[in-house]
Design goal:
This protein is of the alpha/beta class. It has helices at about 15, 30-45, 60-70, 110-130, 140-150; strands at about 1-10, 50-55, 75, 135-140, 170-175, 180-185. It has five helices and six strands. The two termini are about 25 Å apart.
């Protein structure tokens, strides 16, 4: 079985400003850089080494990955965050309550069904073609949460809180299915 670590990027300027951040981008803050370094330290202390690394096309994801490992990596468009259309970079208070469903579609964004299909298919295809035993994927809170809804914990429970910046979700992969192992917040580990 292979192991895949899905990790959210570090804190960004838009996170601090309370702005909706999907396909648009903003830089990591000093705290976000520290979060990435804490994640690197957690992986090192756990003796985890990656045979492959991927991230979304957003700079915040690539910058975070580069803090965790110096190895080569591939940017993959399908690992992007949920597309929020005209709501990109707008204040967070404009977000509807979760679940979003099709809310963003009339505004040029993605539906919940679209993001789930995209992130699920992307991670599945990457892992089916990746021979490495251990893979790191740096993505985004919404994308990872939608992936988690496709491959839930054994008891079907979902974490109640938002995935923290640099939060890590570990799965085992048998070539066809993902098996949830744990969720780690390196800032609390």
């Amino acid at each position: 079985m292979q192991t895949v670590y899905l990790m959210r990027h570090g804190e960004t300027l838009f996170n601090v400003q309370g702005r909706i951040q999907g396909w648009c981008d903003s830089p990591l803050t000093a705290k976000g850089i520290q979060q990435g370094k804490r994640a690197r330290d957690w992986f090192q202390q756990a003796g985890i080494h990656f045979g492959a690394a991927y991230c979304s096309t957003a700079e915040r994801a690539a910058d975070t990955l580069e803090l965790v490992t110096a190895q080569p990596y591939t940017r993959v468009k399908g690992l992007r965050e949920w597309g929020f259309g005209e709501f990109e970079a707008q204040p967070e208070y404009l977000n509807p309550k979760i679940p979003y469903g099709d809310f963003f579609v009339p505004y040029g964004g993605e539906s919940e069904t679209q993001i789930r299909a995209r992130i699920g298919q992307t991670v599945l295809q990457l892992m089916q073609h990746e021979p490495a035993e251990t893979t790191l994927i740096v993505s985004h809170a919404g994308a990872i949460r939608n992936f988690m809804s496709l491959w839930p914990q054994p008891d079907g429970a979902q974490p109640k809180k938002r995935l923290p910046n640099c939060g890590i979700v570990e799965y085992r992969f048998d070539g066809n299915a993902f098996f949830f192992q744990r969720l780690v917040d390196p800032a609390q580990a």
